[in-house]
Design goal:
Blueprint: E1 7-13, E2 24-28, E3 36-45, H1 48-54, E4 65-66, E5 70-77, E6 88-92, E7 107-111, E8 115-117, H2 124-127, H3 131-144, E9 152-156, H4 161-170, E10 176-181, H5 187-192, E11 197-200, H6 206-212, E12 217-222, H7 229-233, E13 236-244, H8 259-262, E14 268-271, H9 276-280, H10 284-293, E15 300-304, H11 308-316, E16 323-327
Parallel strand pairs: 9-10, 9-12, 10-11, 12-13, 13-14, 15-16
Antiparallel strand pairs: 1-2, 1-4, 3-5, 3-7, 3-16, 5-6, 6-8
Helix pairs in contact: 3-4
Length: 328
């Protein structure tokens, strides 16, 4: 395991486990080949898919493995000259943290084809929140849902990091935004982040939607997922579109799925899972610039690398109320 480039700190997973199974170890810095980029990681965001991987629910994993499907930092080396040393860059998906080692480290080595240069100068805790979060929120809104200025949008899972980002991004891009939270105590926070109306989600939402908006919503972003999909589909109006993006409800799929019972007539059901290619098309610079200017807010909670177990615990218990970012 020797490396000519030296040793780094990394969160290395040897087997599935709880948050306390995540330990910071000394690990060889990877050596990039032509077509790869070695990034000095400055920050990375946490994602629920990584929690499921940590729990042993991601098929095809091999160990040891450094988790993390995203990272931001500076180019240390690019043997193919795709980037210059010290370029500020972001990377996301493409097998990170699953097929090959990911971003939970001081260095990560990734294919150059999934690296994006960032021109906007912003603090690392800002940039670290953006790659996967924006790729998911932006793609869900504008690729899957094709959000239009006259649309009414319901975000189910409004206090998830993607839900908060989606509301902030959609503000001013559609006619009306409603978002959900399970806790009445968070309603004001959700409203302050761009929602015109807030629903307290007890698990059964459609009846309340019919009371407030008899015509339903034209677009629905479902971040809770299969656990409540049948009820979510009832929230869409005629010819409305429901996009399933998240799995905050803790289920990958639906047992005994019967389309005729789940999807109302004329309602369209789609999903968004993203890709490295989609990430490269995401306007990270535009969003980062708006954050720096103060015209858009993405709530975050920041941890250090040595606090990775605490950060995962906050994600698992949904106590962060924003995107969790880890600084290295």
């Amino acid at each position: 395991m020797a490396s000519s480039l030296g040793i780094m700190r990394a969160v290395v997973m040897h087997a599935p486990g709880g948050p306390d199974s995540l330990k910071v170890l000394s690990w060889p810095i990877p050596t990039p080949e032509k077509g790869q980029v070695l990034i000095r990681v400055r920050a990375f965001g946490l994602n629920r898919s990584e929690m499921l991987t940590r729990q042993g629910l991601t098929p095809g994993m091999s160990y040891p493995r450094i988790l993390g499907i995203e990272a931001v930092g500076e180019v240390e080396s690019a043997p193919g000259n795709e980037f210059a040393k010290n370029d500020v860059v972001a990377t996301c998906m493409g097998g990170m943290g699953r097929v090959f080692d990911g971003g939970y480290a001081e260095y990560t080595c990734v294919p150059a084809a999934q690296v994006k240069r960032i021109a906007t100068r912003a603090p690392w805790e800002v940039l670290g929140a953006l790659p996967e979060l924006l790729q998911t929120a932006w793609g869900s809104l504008f690729t899957a849902l094709r959000l239009q200025p006259d649309d009414s949008l319901l975000i189910r899972g409004g206090t998830t990091s993607v839900g908060l980002a989606a509301a902030a991004i959609a503000k001013g891009r559609c006619a009306y935004i409603a978002a959900t939270t399970r806790y009445a105590s968070r309603a004001a926070f959700v409203a302050s982040n761009g929602a015109d109306d807030v629903y307290i989600d007890s698990g059964s939402l459609a009846e309340e939607v019919r009371k407030r908006r008899p015509g339903g919503f034209s677009k629905v972003l479902d971040l809770v997922g299969p656990a409540s999909l049948k009820d979510t589909c009832q929230c869409a109006g005629p010819y409305g579109v429901v996009c399933v993006t998240g799995i905050a409800g803790g289920k990958w799929g639906m047992e005994n799925f019967v389309p005729f019972e789940v999807i109302p007539t004329t309602v369209h059901l789609t999903s968004y899972s993203g890709s490295a290619e989609a990430f490269l098309k995401t306007p990270i610079d535009e969003i980062a610039r708006r954050i720096v200017e103060g015209t858009l807010t993405i709530p975050t909670k920041v941890f250090r690398l040595e606090e990775i177990a605490e950060a995962h615990r906050a994600m698992e218990e949904s106590t962060a109320c924003g995107k969790i970012v880890v600084l290295t």
